[in-house]
Design goal:
Layout lengths: L1 E6 L12 E7 L5 E6 L5 H16 L5 E4 L8 H7 L2 E4 L9 H21 L6 H12 L12 H6 L14 E5 L12 E9 L6 E5 L5 E4 L2 E4 L8 H10 L13 E4 L2 E4 L20 H17 L18 E2 L2 E2 L6
Parallel strand pairs: 1-4, 4-5
Antiparallel strand pairs: 1-2, 2-3, 6-7, 6-10, 7-8, 8-9, 11-12, 13-14
Length: about 325
């Protein structure tokens, strides 16, 4: 028996235009297959191909298919041809198809984690999903008595030597063809998964944005090019609404999460224009502004309004001054 379900469309299509994916879970081994789709109309051909694949590769016949009430699974002629029983869950009762529903939740949770860590653009979510399924099928499960779905299906232990960190920095060797002695020997890339049937790694070229497969690659699994400091600062600045107009670019230096003054002794004046009576106090104001500049930078959201003690503290000592009760 297999459990099938279609993941709802995402608002961000993949780099290849996929909006859905069909998930197939073997009820016994819990082995999972994922098929990317542009539309739900591809479901029929995918199910037919999967039935033939299982029979040819594992010498087994699919006897039962469990799904929800989606019209994309209404293929009575297909089921009758192969003698398959179609089990459907009741309306608004997804728990009756819990095996694949929970598998969807598992896949999406790990996919989000990979995308958050690597900071890869969301249009590459299809590669993240395929990589997650590749990992899940090789993780031992308590439901399977500490065996992995891969071991349950193929009756042999999987290899973990080829596993790499999703989104990490990699350098792929360039082919010798059409390469002279001064050309680079490697391409700076990002690792985004594996390709079924090919002994190679799927890599994304950081310069040309080409996606290709390479066997000879060197990986730096603790470095994520899309999570660089420059990218983080740019994203942070796009979401900040603070007014930095009272500081000139020559006064501050932003490096990572630290903000320092290039010249702390230089006079920094507020945007508010000063009157003639205040010109004589320039030196005094400059010293005061310099002492408060670092505090303003550390807490840019601090209000500039005059602070007054609360009314209920009128009879108490507040910040070195006595709040006088006017009624006395």
């Amino acid at each position: 028996m297999i459990c099938v379900d279609i993941w709802d469309p995402i608002s961000i299509p993949s780099i290849h235009g996929h909006k859905y994916f069909l998930t197939v879970v073997d009820d016994l081994s819990r082995h999972t297959w994922v098929f990317l789709m542009h539309s739900k109309g591809e479901t029929r051909n995918l199910l037919l191909n999967f039935i033939i694949y299982i029979k040819n590769q594992f010498k087994k016949d699919i006897k039962t298919i469990r799904s929800d009430n989606g019209p994309e699974f209404e293929y009575d002629d297909l089921y009758n041809k192969y003698g398959i029983i179609h089990q459907k869950s009741c309306v608004h009762t997804p728990q009756q198809n819990s095996v694949v529903e929970r598998k969807h939740q598992h896949i999406l949770n790990v996919t989000r984690s990979l995308l958050f860590e690597s900071n890869i653009p969301k249009c590459y979510w299809s590669y993240a999903v395929n990589h997650v399924v590749h990992i899940i099928n090789r993780i031992p499960s308590a439901v399977l008595k500490n065996k992995s779905p891969y071991e349950m299906l193929y009756s042999k232990s999987p290899t973990y030597l080829d596993l790499k960190t999703f989104g990490c920095l990699s350098f792929a060797s360039t082919p010798d063809i059409n390469r002279n002695k001064l050309d680079p020997r490697a391409r700076k890339c990002v690792f985004i998964g594996f390709k079924s049937g090919i002994k190679g790694y799927i890599l994304l070229d950081l310069k040309s944005r080409d996606i290709f497969i390479s066997r000879n690659a060197l990986f730096y699994e603790t470095i994520f090019p899309y999570s660089s400091t420059e990218t983080t600062i740019a994203e942070r600045n796009n979401h900040m609404n603070h007014d930095f107009s009272f500081l000139n670019d020559s006064h501050i230096n932003i490096r990572g999460d630290h903000i320092t003054l290039n010249n702390p002794t230089r006079e920094i004046q507020d945007n508010d224009s000063t009157t003639d009576d205040e010109e004589d106090k320039t030196t005094e104001n400059t010293t005061y502004e310099q002492s408060n500049t670092e505090d303003n930078i550390q807490d840019l959201r601090r209000s500039r309004r005059d602070r007054k003690p609360p009314y209920y503290l009128k009879d108490y000592q507040v910040n070195g001054s006595l709040a006088i009760n006017n009624s006395c």
